[in-house]
Automatic annotation (TrEMBL):
Protein name in the entry: protein-serine/threonine phosphatase
Any GO MF annotation of the entry: RNA polymerase II CTD heptapeptide repeat phosphatase activity
Species per Swiss-Prot/TrEMBL record: Oncorhynchus mykiss (Rainbow trout)
CDD domains the record matches: HAD_FCP1-like (cd07521)
Pfam families registered for this protein in UniProt: NIF
Biased composition range(s): Polar residues: 1-28
Active site: D107, D109
SMART domains for the chain: CPDc (SM00577)
EC number of the protein: 3.1.3.16
Length: 271
């Protein structure tokens, strides 16, 4: 099976301690044997990755146009316009019920659920996914306390599901997971930027104020453009005793009242 429809971190990578964790993390477990479906993992090692293309914003500028307009001003201006033109942002306009709320971008795999093609007896969902004409079953485990977590997050924030996995897998999983409709918008792989072999979630493309935006993701590569907006979370695979999502709720309760997420996150990170 060569299609990598699910974007997952490798278990070994997930054992790296997070420098900026906001929640005390339990000691890392021994790495387990590598998943046989290596093709699922689409995040290549950086040194194997093709050279990144030049930053997109540079190509918006004529090469020598720094005569009368300062280049940076022009860039800011282009960025501003880009985000103001309707239809160019990843997110639709804020709904009246989410007005004034902070926007939280939430990852799916290893943050809220863990999925695999290997049959497991205790799967919460089994989702058929068609790959190249053949239907495969994907076995999905919900992270402990995910229902309570999502329900509260929906009350506190404008919640956006943002996954680097393919919609044909992630959309039906989210239908099953998000029974209460907490996620106003779902973004999939095509909304990511492919950068140095990884799918990056570029928060500046959302169409929200960055100082009112948070990202909850187990993979630091996902928020490499905006590490200062991140609430790191330990990767989850199958530990049924995991309480990470519960421990994060008080953190998010505090963040939900922030005027500026940067200041608040800095406060929370301070020892
Ligand atoms: C234009 O940029 C070049 C280098 O990129 C610089 O040497 C030059 O001074 C700049 N011109 C103006 C008018 O800012
Ligand atoms: C947040 O950013 C916006 C610009 O995107 C700025 O106008 C606003 O003053 C900032 N708010 C705070 C509290 O820094």
């Amino acid at each position: 099976m060569e299609s990598s429809i699910i974007t997952q971190v490798q278990k070994e990578d997930s054992q790296l301690p997070s420098k900026t964790g906001l929640v005390n993390q339990s000691s890392p477990k021994k790495p387990r044997s590598r998943n046989i479906f290596k093709a699922l993992f689409c995040c290549l090692r950086a040194q194997d990755a093709p050279q990144p293309p030049p930053p997109a914003q540079d190509t918006l500028l004529p090469p020598e146009d720094n005569g009368t307009i300062d280049k940076l001003d022009l860039l800011q201006n282009l960025r501003y316009q880009f985000h103001q033109v309707p239809g160019t942002s990843l997110l639709p306009e804020v709904t009246p019920q989410d007005e004034g709320k902070i926007c939280v971008v939430i990852d799916l795999d290893e943050t809220l659920v863990h999925s695999s093609f290997k049959p497991i007896s205790n799967a919460d969902f089994i989702v058929p996914v068609e790959i190249e004409g053949t239907t495969h079953q994907v076995y999905v485990l919900k992270r402990p306390h995910v229902d309570q977590f999502l329900q509260r997050m929906g009350e506190l924030f404008e919640c956006v599901l943002f996954t680097a996995s393919l919609a044909k897998y992630a959309d039906p999983v989210t239908d099953l997971l998000d029974q209460c409709g907490v996620f106003g918008t779902r973004l999939f792989r095509e909304s990511c930027v492919f950068h140095q072999g990884c799918y990056v979630k570029d928060l500046s493309r959302l169409g929200r104020q960055l100082n009112k935006t948070l990202i909850l993701d187990n993979s630091p590569a996902s928020y490499i453009f905006h590490p200062e907006n991140a609430v790191p979370v330990v990767s989850w695979f199958d530990d049924l005793e995991d309480t990470e999502l519960l421990s994060l709720l008080p953190v998010f309760e505090e963040l939900s009242e922030a005027d500026d997420v940067y200041a608040k996150l800095q406060q929370l990170r301070a020892p």
